[in-house]
Amino acid sequence: MSDLFASIKRGLEEAVAHQQGEKTGVRLFTPEAVDVKLVRQRTGLTQEQFASTFGISLGTLRH
């Protein structure tokens, strides 16, 4: 079994164990919420410009 396959398998096993409530030593990071509308307004960019600059779809930005 290749190192890559072994690493992927180990990661999937850890994900399943974590999902089932087992302690796996996994550390979770929950980022703080960002007020995207406020950030966009402070940059002075239109929705279209902001979406294009950061590589997100306009639909995602609007929802």
Describe this structure in words.
This protein is mainly alpha-helical and 63 residues long. The chain has 2 domains: 1-28; 31-63, no CATH class. The protein is 60% helix and 0% strand. The protein is built from 4 helices and no strands. It has helices at residues 3-19, 36-43, 47-54, 58-62. The radius of gyration is 19 Å and the shape is elongated. The N and C termini lie far apart (44 Å).
Tell me briefly what this model is.
It contains four helices and no strands. It is mainly alpha-helical and 63 residues long.
Strand and helix map with partners:
Elements: H1 3-19, H2 36-43, H3 47-54, H4 58-62
Please give a handful of descriptors for the protein shown:
63 residues; 0% strand
In total, the number of domains comes to 2
Query: How many β-strand stretches?
Result: 0
Sheet with most strands = none
- Mean pLDDT across all amino acids: 91
Oligomer: single chain
Helix content: 55-70%
Judging from the principal axes of the Cα atoms, what is the shape? elongated
Q: What structural class is derived from the secondary structure elements?
A: mainly alpha
Tell me what portion of residues adopts beta-strand conformation.
under 5%
Question: SSE order in H/E notation?
Answer: HHHH
Distance from N terminus to C terminus (CA atoms, Å) equals 44 Å
* SS summary, helix count: 4
Low-confidence stretches: none
